[in-house]
Sequence to fold (510 residues):
Amino acid sequence: MYIRQAGFMNQTTDELIELLAGKIRSSDKGAYDDFFRMMYAKLSGFAMTYVHDQNLAYDIVQDAFVILWQRRAGIDPDKSLKSFMYKAVRNRCLNELRNRSKEVVSSELAENQYKNDEAIEIESEHPLGNHFREWIASLPERQKEAFELSRYEGLNHEEIADLMNISTKTVNNHIVAAMAQLRKCYQQYKQNNQQN
Amino acid sequence: MDKYHSLNAPDHIISEFHAGQRDEINEIWRLSGLSAQKVPEYSASDVESALNDLHLRLEISGDLTSTSDKIAGWIQQYSRVLAAAVALIALTSFFIFVPRTAVVPYGEIATLELPDGSVIEMNSGTEIRYSRFYRFSDRTIELNGEAFFKVADHGHPFIVVANGVSVEVTGTQFNVRSWHDDLSRETIVTVAEGEVLFYPMLKREQMVVLTAGKSSRWNPELVQPSEPESSLFEDAAAWRDFRFVFRNQSLGSILRDLERRFNITIELDIPGIESSPLTAYYSQQVSLESVLDDICTVKGLRYTRTSTGFRIYR
Fold:
């Protein structure tokens, strides 16, 4: 089963990535460069959502592409190269956060600190944007991650499953649970607004 | 943000909700787009410089590890004796895998002979890169700038890569103009002798075949390089005699040519005029001032000296 999802990473992009994957596998440097150009901004943004540090995000994305070239011969033609890259970036980000959290007293503290940083960094013009950000931040960690990968990174269920090391069914369950929770928050918000 | 607004939630998620809830779920899916992190914006040159860093890292780390892998078995037996040898090999491969780079200073034209006898003549400010194994592996040259190639025929292809496009030949003579700082990242190929295949990188099926006296251009907006058209090779390669021939060239790009040729900076204080096209032909070498005079006369502009060059204003 291959679930395709409407998204800004559309089908032609996916097809192009598949084509590039084959060429990278056979050591085509031009294809590798093109893939880099294609994914660079996306992956940098993705790394930033974890580490909130531009230099660190830069290094992490570079690392991920080094890994891709070193392991190019082992690229699985049946799996998405996009999720390979997201996975490589995500693993490095999580390692970084883990290392950092040792420096701080506890990981919980560190997490709160990053949340605060994030709140300062991005302020949405639309008031609902901030509410959604809060609601999404309060979701259980795995649900939140699956939802964000699907919603903001445009990954399909198979890619998310591969990345998070869970089944596509579980991916779906996580996102459905997240949506149900967001729906509750949104309804409550609308109710409060009507009362005011 | 717009791209987040028109989307519905994926079917597999929607189908888990009652029919009566689905519109609301789609609405929440759309609204959640409001809190998307912005994708960072990078200019093409940011991306290229990041890619360049990556190339350097690959050339260093990738090949070092493969060297030490191969001799891993030995090391256990003769670790002390071999430690020094391994370090030596590692150092050597560090050196070998860094590509050769040639950069022509502003104000100058340079000629370079490659190990296979091919000759590259490069305009001011041009940069090329090629592997130290050039002769033994592929004959690929990365180009940023403008160069005339006289390729020795060894049966296997010689490829110039520039701004996302490939120029493939066996043995011929041709000129390639492809500056990374060109606004439309345009590449122009003009052939003096023989046959040239011109195609967007990875898309050999889109190739255009150019013969002597023909030229074609490509930029990332195009699917295929332009239909070959007749073109005076002397005009395309006028730079080799330190001459200028501008055919419908944008003012911005002309000024960059002047900056590189005369090693000065030219400020242009009029917004939006960079892309305005200009045609001018010089049959012999001319001074910078006389080119500036001509440009300003045609475009109704004036220029003045600055500490590092000139400033053009209205």
The longest strand of chain B covers residues 139-150. Residues 2-35 of chain B form one domain. Chain B is about 30% helix and 30% strand.
